Amino acid sequence: MLPICSLVGNGSACNPDFVVFVYQYTNIRREVVKITDVQAFHLRGDIEALPDSSMEALLVKISTDAGIVGWGEADGSRAINKAVIEAPFSSPVVSGLRHLLLGEDPMNVTRLWKKMYDSTIYSGREGAVIHAMAGIDLALWDIKGKALQVPVHQLLGGCFRSRIPAYASTLFEITPGKNADLARKIVDDGYTAMKMGWQSFGRGPLADDIRTIEAIRHAAGDATGIAVDAGFAWTPKEAMRRAQAFEPYNLMWIEEPLVPDDLVGYERLSNFVPTEIAAGEEDASVNGFVRLMNAGIDYIQIDLTKTGLTMAMQVAAIANQRGLKCINHNFSNHINTAASLHFLAAIPNAFILEYGYNPAEIARTLILNPIVVNDGYVDVPMEPGLGVEPDLSVVERFLVRG
Fold this sequence. Notes:
The protein is α/β, with parallel strands linked by helices and 402 residues long. The chain has two domains: 4-155, Enolase-like, domain 1, CATH 3.30.390; 163-391, Alpha-Beta Barrel (TIM Barrel). The chain has helices spanning 4-8, 16-32, 78-86, 97-101, 109-118, 128-148, 152-155, 176-188, 206-220, 236-246, 263-272, 286-294, 304-321, 334-346, 361-365, 392-398, and strands at 35-44, 56-64, 69-73, 163-171, 193-197, 225-229, 253-255, 277-279, 299-302, 325-328, 353-356, 377-379. Helix 11 links the parallel strand 7 and strand 8. The longest helix is centred in the middle third of the chain and has 21 residues, at 128-148.
């Protein structure tokens, strides 16, 4: 039998009392801990004129016969994610995910990922099925951490860091002046970096974008990191033109200037401009991320609610071998935030945490113990599992019925 320290990672968890507890637990748990239910809760608030993905949520709850409950989150199309989980068995290569997990041992996280992956060949491999698997994967890691009474990052190998720098992530305002006001507020709130994206940015004249970035840089100061999310607005040639024009403003990165599958365009752009390029939030396969790496992307942007931790750790290891930094994508709620913190804490090539600056009401109220930014940093959760729990009254309030 492996030493218990190698099962839960290294560090402070390895004390004699803890080892005795977990040794006793692991000797009995395989007879008693089984998955009894997998539930998907689609939450939806008011979809506003300028919508973002924090206005919806798809929560995954996994229950066990030991009374341990795990929570995860899946992004993408929440209605489709729910259908993928709840669909019945059809054939060995077409199955709903709930059917595959009932009666299984939740501690076998990696084996269950492979079981889901192999049993959805006709419907999955990338996209919505993997997104649904990601929500389940996060819930399984949450259960495993709670069962062993350790935070998830210990299960992933331990911490490289206990605090992660965070940047404020938000949408652009409608005028340069309003964007400048927003930048000042973000700096006043203690952030040392920010990202603004979407809206009309990149979709009008280049001069408008320059005025916007100039106003933000002037308001935020030279020491503040500034990134922009172009939201697939450009062709490769237009991206080259605009990236060159933005160089005087020393951007931290330009995010997703091209559509996600324009790999030739990304390679041309990455070879042409000195400004670093971030992409990957749409990817939901190891192969997809490798293709982006081969195209010359500088920052590998992983959304844990689309990949799960199991896949994300594989992607991060490949990126690290190539000398590339990983960042998270998060425009949903604090289940994603917590999972991202454990992930970024446990890998050597983490850079910075995306933190939703002014999300919709669901994201603001969903978690009983929300994660907060202090002086531009976020502490990595040290509670067992992911370290966050949903407010069930909020789940009930926003639940889509029928």
